[in-house]
């Protein structure tokens, strides 16, 4: 299982079993560049990350890289490395069932029906969006769970 505290780029390399020197050669980069990526001093370009994914098969790196490089925007939710598929699926299904059991789907339709979010509806709408963000994050976690990424 992956070490969650390990730098995401080092985790990717570690999954291949390559040394930093071998990894640098495979990526056509210097060892110094690899050390900077893995030490957090520098962020690789998307093209380099794509090469890392192609070589390692570690698709979760794409989402982790996007989350790390767009963190101030708070648009994409990160996934946690090493989460078992069963745990990820249970979390997703529980969130979806709770959403339906609390009739959030109907509440959202009522709010959106007239195309206007009134001040009275704003708090409920924001709470529903928070629930939807959690569901989306849980779905991403399923996609990039440990077993799913090993296919």
Relative strand content: under 5%
Order of helices and strands: HHHHHHHHH
**From the helix content, strand content and strand pairing, which structural class follows?**
mainly alpha
Number of strands: 0
Unreliably modeled segments: none
Gyration radius, rounded: 19 Å
Largest sheet: none
Instruction: Give the rounded overall mean pLDDT.
Output: 89
- How does the overall form come out from the CA principal axes? elongated
State the end-to-end distance: 15 Å
Count of alpha and pi helical runs? 9
**What fraction, in percent, of the residue positions are helical?**
55-70%
Characterise the protein shown here.
The longest helix is centred in the last third of the chain and has 25 residues, at 119-143. The protein is built from nine helices and no strands. By secondary structure, the chain is mainly alpha-helical. It has helices spanning 8-16, 20-27, 31-39, 46-56, 60-69, 85-101, 104-112, 119-143, 146-150.
What's this entry about, in short?
With about 150 residues, the protein is mainly alpha-helical.
Please give the structural blueprint:
Elements: H1 8-16, H2 20-27, H3 31-39, H4 46-56, H5 60-69, H6 85-101, H7 104-112, H8 119-143, H9 146-150
Helix pairs in contact: 1-4, 2-3, 4-5, 6-8, 7-8
